[in-house]
């Protein structure tokens, strides 16, 4: 489940007002207040507290000098803010003075109640008189008595419904809930039993409440739509990468569907026909124009002449949306696969004389038939019905397929279609596109994995099993699906697929291109990290690199790829508490990292001791990309066949709540030196913080932006280059071992470059204990060995030491990447 506070505006508004009302009633009861409240005649009463009784409860609490909890104050302020925005929207679209005054009255009461509960220099009696004069005239009486009754664990145990021999109307008027007074002065809302929750009642008609629900949903969807547009504008100017734009957009669409489901599950009457877009729009337009679509005297049979104009406007809104999708898909330079003339003719037919002569109901039914004809003729399968065996990944694709399957157009379908159009229009004319980014991602992945197979064909690695190799080969074969796809040729009625025309599905649907790109990047990142650990060449090269930097009389070496690798990962973990200060510390930490004990290198060590210790407790460099790890865990073993479902997004959102919140500007400045993913924070630090949907999506976008270098870093290439460097150290390493530790034999098993390096460093450490005359016996001293290593590393750094950084500069977003930018100089 999504975090409980991550709800739509209307559900959040109801929760805030109910929370505040429950606190008012419970706290007033602890101060000695008795209320008589109409609660309805159901078996389970809703415990409705009229808004007119708020100030008296606030007065009783204020007299008792009980402080207002911060969480309660924040909830009231959120409710006031949302209702003010809603009231302004109502006032701009409707001239219904009664409804507008009702909204204003509700806001004023909440503000005055909140002000009365907060410490103030305002005279209490004057404020009380103001409340009574403005609000309580003509309202039901509220009795406030201060008397004592025995304390109870649950102050609401005595809530009861008075039943009498009356008809239904009389029963409704005489039902009350008696709230007893407690001697206990605690204002904490937690009790031994869960007290009943109260709801605020404005006394307004259902039409106003319906419009509030519709407005809140549209408010949420517009916010999500604005977030998506802002994200893709960032992609256009190069500040946001395609993967981040696509994944966060899909998460926003999942949130939109969640907001809709909340209102549908609550069975609100205006969302009972949620799967009929025309019905929803008709209801919304009716309410905005002052009609109640549910009242027979106004709506009749839904198609009477009084609301015929509203029905026609509803149809125009619906068809306009779908026609825009139609034009987007039709406006291409390549061949048009489908004929849209019939749909256009049918749409024009709604203004014909024959159409105007029909009855209102016939007009509506004919318009709906035309709407579905437009839907069928537009063939949304052109960008979503991809039959190549790849699972549908994006929320947009899922909604479009559902629309074709159910033959209905719901508000969910319309929202996804509108976001799709927004993205297409935003990236139109952009020099870079998700389609090209995906193509380059596939080609880079094939190149890197192909380099691994070329390297493994001439060199063996005992740590890399046949299962790993089979997995990489299967993944490499799956990448060919995106390059040589016969389905694309069928779509364009051509027999041959060109080298740059094989991603037609992803040309039309940029979101699916981004999600597929993320799948590939995650797989390459996971396999690259596994290959890095299996080959075991990068960490030893890092130790030699740091050792050469602190060793005097050696050539200064700068290997940009190694520096970038350290920046992206936990350097303290790699060097076990910090960079080594000398040769002895470097050697000991390298032993510990690979699971060997210092005693294994003694002169009298038995053969095989070192070999066994190298295979035990070997530490592994782990990915620092928390979001990527969460997605990989959510995907499980499905790999590229998984879709970005609601369940997956829920897991990612739960992960995000444990990550510190940082603004995008601060994060851009701090990312080079202190990446967000490496910061430590207790799990409970943000547990009580209210996070809105927009804040969570922004956090997700910012976090993914910091992880982008991790995903596209060439772990395969760095591992191969470090392995080549270590192989050149085998010959001088064997010589120094033979010279200074002739009693130790280098085992032939295991990863030989690593074994030779560790034995060579052990020999160098051993040589420092020898006398000066013994040390000068040979020509290859400890200093000479390190000088030779420095020359070899300098050569490799010059030839291949900057390739991963060059790829980051070429494929990453245009924002500065700290160490990457410094490597340009």
Automatic annotation (TrEMBL):
This is DUF6604 domain-containing protein. Residues 180-193 have a biased composition (Polar residues). It comes from the Eukaryota. Residues 178-202, 663-686 are annotated as: Disordered. Residues 12-264 form the DUF6604 domain. It holds the Pfam family DUF6604. InterPro entries: DUF6604 (IPR046539). It comes from Microthyrium microscopicum.
């Amino acid at each position: 489940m999504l975090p409980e506070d991550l709800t739509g505006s209307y559900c959040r508004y109801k929760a805030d007002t109910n929370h505040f009302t429950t606190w008012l009633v419970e706290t007033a009861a602890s101060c000695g207040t008795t209320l008589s409240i109409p609660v309805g005649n159901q078996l389970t009463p809703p415990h409705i507290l009229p808004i007119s009784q708020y100030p008296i409860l606030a007065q009783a609490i204020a007299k008792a000098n009980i402080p207002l909890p911060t969480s309660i104050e924040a909830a009231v302020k959120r409710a006031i803010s949302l209702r003010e925005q809603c009231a302004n929207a109502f006032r701009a679209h409707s001239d219904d003075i009664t409804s507008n005054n009702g909204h204003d009255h509700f806001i004023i009461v909440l503000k005055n109640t909140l002000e009365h509960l907060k410490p103030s220099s305002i005279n209490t009696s004057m404020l009380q008189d103001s409340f009574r004069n403005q609000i309580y005239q003509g309202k039901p009486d509220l009795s406030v008595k201060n008397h004592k009754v025995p304390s109870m664990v649950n102050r609401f145990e005595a809530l009861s419904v008075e039943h009498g021999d009356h008809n239904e109307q009389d029963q409704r008027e005489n039902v009350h809930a008696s709230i007893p007074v407690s001697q206990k002065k605690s204002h904490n809302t937690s009790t031994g039993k869960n007290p009943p929750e109260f709801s605020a009642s404005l006394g307004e008609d259902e039409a106003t409440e319906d419009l509030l629900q519709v407005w809140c949903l549209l408010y949420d969807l517009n916010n999500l739509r604005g977030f998506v547009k802002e994200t893709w504008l960032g992609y256009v100017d190069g500040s946001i990468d395609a993967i981040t734009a696509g994944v966060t957009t899909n998460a926003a669409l999942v949130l939109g569907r969640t907001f809709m489901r909340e209102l549908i599950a609550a069975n609100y009457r205006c969302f009972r026909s949620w799967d009929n877009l025309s019905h929803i729009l008709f209801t919304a337009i009716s309410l905005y124009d002052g009609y109640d679509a549910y009242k027979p005297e106004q709506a009749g049979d839904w198609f009477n002449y009084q609301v015929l104009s509203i029905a026609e406007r509803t149809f125009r809104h619906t068809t306009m949306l779908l026609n825009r999708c139609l034009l987007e898909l039709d406006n291409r330079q390549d061949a048009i696969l489908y004929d849209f003339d019939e749909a256009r003719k049918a749409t024009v037919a709604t203004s014909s004389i024959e159409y105007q002569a029909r009855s209102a109901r016939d007009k509506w039914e004919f318009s709906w038939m035309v709407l579905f004809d437009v839907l069928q003729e537009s063939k949304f399968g052109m960008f979503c019905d991809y039959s190549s065996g790849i699972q549908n990944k994006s929320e947009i694709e899922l909604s479009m397929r559902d629309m074709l399957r159910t033959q209905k157009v719901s508000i969910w379908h319309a929202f996804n279609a509108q976001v799709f159009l927004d993205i297409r229009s935003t990236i139109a004319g952009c020099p870079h596109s998700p389609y090209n980014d995906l193509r380059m991602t596939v080609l880079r992945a094939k190149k890197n994995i192909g380099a691994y197979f070329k390297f493994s064909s001439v060199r063996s690695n005992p740590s890399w099993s046949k299962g790993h190799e089979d997995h990489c080969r299967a993944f490499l074969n799956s990448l060919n699906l995106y390059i040589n796809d016969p389905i694309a040729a069928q779509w364009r009625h051509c027999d041959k697929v060109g080298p740059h025309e094989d991603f037609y599905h992803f040309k039309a649907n940029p979101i699916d291109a981004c999600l597929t790109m993320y799948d590939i990047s995650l797989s390459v990142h996971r396999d690259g990290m596994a290959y890095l650990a299996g080959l075991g060449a990068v960490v030893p090269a890092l130790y030699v690199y740091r050792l050469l930097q602190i060793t005097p009389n050696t050539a200064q070496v700068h290997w940009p790829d190694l520096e970038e690798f350290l920046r992206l990962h936990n350097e303290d973990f790699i060097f076990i508490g910090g960079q080594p200060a000398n040769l002895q510390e470097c050697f000991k930490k390298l032993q510990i990292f690979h699971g060997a004990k210092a005693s294994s290198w003694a002169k009298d060590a038995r053969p095989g001791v070192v070999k066994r210790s190298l295979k035990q407790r070997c530490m592994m460099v782990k990915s620092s990309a928390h979001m990527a790890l969460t997605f990989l865990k959510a995907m499980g073993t499905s790999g590229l066949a998984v879709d970005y479902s609601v369940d997956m997004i829920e897991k990612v959102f739960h992960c995000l709540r444990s990550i510190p919140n940082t603004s995008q500007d601060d994060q851009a400045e701090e990312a080079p030196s202190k990446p967000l993913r490496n910061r430590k924070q207790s799990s409970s630090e943000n547990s009580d913080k209210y996070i809105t949907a927009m804040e969570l999506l922004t956090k997700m976008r910012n976090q993914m932006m910091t992880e982008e270098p991790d995903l596209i870093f060439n772990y395969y290439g760095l591992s191969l280059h470090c392995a080549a460097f270590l192989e050149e150290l085998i010959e001088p390493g064997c010589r120094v071992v033979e010279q200074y530790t002739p009693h130790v034999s280098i085992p032939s098993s295991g990863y030989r470059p690593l074994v030779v390096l560790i034995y060579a460093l052990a020999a160098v450490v051993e040589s420092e204990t020898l006398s000066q005359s013994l040390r000068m016996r040979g020509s290859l001293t400890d200093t000479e060995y390190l000088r030779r290593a420095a020359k070899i590393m300098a050569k490799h750094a010059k030839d291949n030491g900057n390739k991963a950084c060059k790829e980051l500069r070429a494929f990453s977003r245009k924002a500065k990447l700290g160490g990457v930018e410094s490597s340009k100089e």
